[in-house]
Amino acid sequence: MKFDNLRVVVTGASREFGRALAIGFAHLGAEVFVSARTVEAAERTLADVMGSARERIHAFGCDLSRPAEIREFARRVGEHTGRVDLLVNNGARWLDGVELEDASDDQIVETIESTAGGTVLMVKHFLPLLRASQRPDIVNMVAVRGPDTAGMSTAHDAFYAAKSAQAGFADILSHRLRSSGVRVFSLYPPDFSTSDPRSVEWEGTGGDPDEKLTTQALFECIVYAVEQPRDCFIRSFHFEPR
């Protein structure tokens, strides 16, 4: 299969895009290590996988706002495999509210810690496994980062702050890891359809210009980037809203 023997780690894999990534890579032959805030949530993704691909998914609980859980997640993945070829930083704590006062202090701190801090710590603790790979890649699902997208979202200011921090980290990481062969790229899509990999929608991209960007299209962008020769560094994918 296309990604037979590829080792992939996906955070925030219990629903929507993260879940679709995990299932999509498993069906392409990769061995996938998925995390969600609780192991029960991660195991729901495992239960949805069809056929032999189910045997290639391993579920873990990991709250990205808790450093000890990230360290433990990396340690446990290291017990299964001596390398990671692709780390997908998809997990982020969504926070709703168009007014700064809409969220409590604890919610704001947790959002920033899980999205920005969680991404930094995931890379830090998985870097030894990535460096053991002959084809290491890091993908960051940034999506939103600044005021140019604020009018189209109900996300809280703290969520934007966290995403901007994540984007800044990805930019500097791309430069600093390039010499060691670790590629880093980020996705900046607008609002998109979170279709299920088992559904009819997953089988075809939308041809109507009024339709949303699809999960399948984003997944194919990641697959495309990962398949490129190792001297090809794609820093980011930016998508125009329809």
TrEMBL record:
InterPro entries: NAD(P)-bd_dom_sf, SDR_fam. It comes from Streptomyces pini. One of its GO terms (cellular component) is membrane. The keyword Transcription does not apply. The keyword DNA damage does not apply. Keywords: Oxidoreductase. GO terms for molecular function: oxidoreductase activity. This is NAD(P)-dependent dehydrogenase, short-chain alcohol dehydrogenase family.
